[in-house]
Specification:
Layout: E1 3-6, E2 9-12, H1 19-25, E3 50-57, H2 62-67, E4 80-81, E5 87-94, H3 114-118
Parallel strand pairs: 1-5
Antiparallel strand pairs: 1-2, 3-4, 3-5
The chain binds FE2/S2 (inorganic) cluster.
Residues 39-40, 42-49, 67, 81, 83 line the site of FE2/S2 (inorganic) cluster.
Length: 119
């Protein structure tokens, strides 16, 4: 069973689940502030569940690539949408600041040490 590392939590999750669903099962969210209420509920269209992910995941979906290709996101930030990205092995997830989690140059909302924990 894969592990998901998020904000000092180490979660046991089912392979094939989305990151958003896996977090929700443990009472956690990939959203910041009001975006936890105001979001597209997993359709992949709002972009508010964007996170940095390291580890084994599904390939980006078409809608995910589309949504991450325009502001406030930037494709070069290599974020993933937690509602689209499926867990395929151990993963470490970091949520950055901003309504969409788009402020990758600021300290992350979650402070997962990606390199140390996924090896
Ligand atoms: S919840 Fe809207 S894109 Fe993921």
């Amino acid at each position: 069973m894969p592990q998901l590392l998020f904000n000092q939590h180490i979660l046991q999750v089912e392979q094939g689940m989305t990151i958003k669903d896996a977090l929700a099962l443990h009472g956690l969210t990939p959203h910041n502030g009001a975006s936890d209420t105001f979001n597209c509920r997993g359709l992949g269209t709002c972009g508010t569940c964007a996170v940095a992910v390291k580890g084994k995941t599904s390939k980006p979906t078409t809608v995910e690539k589309w949504r991450l290709s325009f502001p406030p996101h930037k494709p070069e930030n290599s974020l993933r949408l937690a509602c689209q990205c499926k867990i395929m092995g151990n993963v470490a997830v970091t949520k950055y600041a901003g309504f969409w989690g788009q402020l990758v140059d600021m300290a992350p909302e979650t402070n997962t040490d990606l390199d140390a924990k996924t090896g």
